[in-house]
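for the writeup, i need someone to sanity check this before i put it in the appendix. the sequnce is what the collaborator sent (i think, or maybe the updated version? ugh). structure was predicted straight from it, no edits. if anything looks off just tell me and ill rerun, i have time this weekend
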Amino acid sequence: MLIPTTTVVALRCPSCGRLEFHGLSLFNFSGDHTWQMECSCGMVLMTMGTRKGRNFWLQYHCGMCDNIHVIHQHRRELWSQELLTLTCNETDLEVGFIGPRDKVQQAVQHHDRSLAEMAEDLGFGGYFEEPDAMYQLLALVFQLAEGGHVRCCCGNDNIEVEIFPGHLQLRCDACGAEKILPASTITNLEKPEDLEEIILPGHLAGSDEAGPGKGRRRRQKSPV
C-alpha cells in the first residue's frame, strides 16, 4: 500500500487577500519540529506541530473572522487521498483546504462562488446601497489583491479594506494613506478588466513627496 508523505495546503491571507498554496511533507516534523506557513506578504497563516508523529495540532489565521482557530487531526487525515476542509468557527464558511494537489485545486475553484452569495450568507443582503455594483467592486478588488496589484506608493502592499454601504475604504497599515472607492467606480469603467491596479497615495518616510490625499494620477490603463 502506498502511504502519502506529501500534501498541499491552500489558505487565503486575511491581511492581503492572496490565496497561498504550500506543499507540506511529513518529514518536516522529524524531531517534533513545528511548521509554519507564511504568506508572501509576511503574515503567518498557519502553525502546525505534533507529538509522536501521529496526532497533529493546526493553528490557522482565519480569513473570514480574522481570528485564530485551532484544530486537532490524525496523521492519516492530513496525508491521505481525501480532502480536508478548514472552516471558520464563527461563520462555518470554508477558508482553506489540505489534501492532494488536484483535489485542493478543484476545491478552490468550487469555493470561488460569487461574493453576492457569501454576502447573503453573512446577512449583508440589505446592507449595500447599490448591491450589484458593490458585489462587482468587491470581487474586482479581491482579484487584484490576490495578484499583488493593490499597493501603496510607500512600497507597502499590506492594505486593509473596510466595507461601507456605498463605498470601500482602503488603508495602508504602514503609512496610513487611504483611498475611497465608491460603488460607482465599477459602473464608470467601460470594462472591469481595464482596472489593472489600485494604488494608494502614500509616501516613504522622510520623503518630500506629497503625503496621503495628494497622490498623483497616471493616465495609464485604469489604475485607481
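The longest strand covers residues 44-51. The CA atoms of residues 15 and 213 lie 23 Å apart.
thx in advance!!
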